[in-house]
Amino acid sequence: xxxxxxxxxxxxxxxxxxxxxxxxxxxxxxxxxxxxxxxxxxxxxxxxxxxxxxxxxxxxxxxxxxxxxxxxxxxxxxxxxxxxxxxxxxxxxxxxxxxxxxxxxxxxxxxxxxxxxxxxxxxxxxxxxxxxxxxxxxxxxxxxxxxxxxxxxxxxxxxxxxxxxxxxxxxxxxxxxxxxxxxxxxxxxxxxxxxxxxxxxxxxxxxxxxxxxxxxxxxxxxxxx
Length: 225
Fold this sequence. Notes:
By secondary structure, this protein is α/β, with parallel strands linked by helices. It has two domains: 2-44 and 101-224, Ribosomal Protein L4, Chain: A; 46-96, no CATH class. Helices cover 37% and strands 14% of the residues. It contains eight helices and six strands, in the order ββαααβαβαβαβαα. It has helices at residues 21-24, 30-44, 103-119, 136-145, 161-167, 183-188, 196-207, 212-224, and strands spanning 2-7, 13-19, 123-126, 152-156, 173-177, 191-195. The strands form two sheets. It has a four-stranded parallel beta sheet with strand order 3-6-4-5. A two-stranded antiparallel ribbon has the order 1-2. The longest helix has 17 residues, at 103-119. The radius of gyration is 27 Å and the shape is elongated.
């Protein structure tokens, strides 16, 4: 277990919390993070871009003009790619951009990203925002006191319109539920701000991911040795 401070909205340490070493104590592997990010971005691509080849465009069923005597270059069809209405050479066609990656690798990538945030000092565990109404100015003041106003990913346990709507118009500030935490969003934001309630829910979620049992067994064997 890793002892980590919990702060309040005024950036004062309230108490400490024990972070799971399974979630926040993994060895940081840049190669794995790169693969997971590539996996996520590839899955976002639809792969529906399509162009027509010269055999698929309309027209061009006869020779545009005779072979010789016109002074022009010889042409066989107006469907050739050099014509404005011709087909496209080496154009995109529907394809699958997805990259294969096992569930254990993706789970380890998530644990690695969370561990990297803690190791870099970019993890903020907040006791509570303490918002009583929807106010962007108040949210900005809180994030400024926490030194997280420039770029931050806020993780909450459940939807809260006071947090969501107060942060909606702030640039580079995103609010996400525990179920949606992913490697790309963790790395693209400078800071990770997670409420204490969301922290418990996140650790429970990660503990159920594939490969977590194996890691836990390895840690138990290491402690026993």
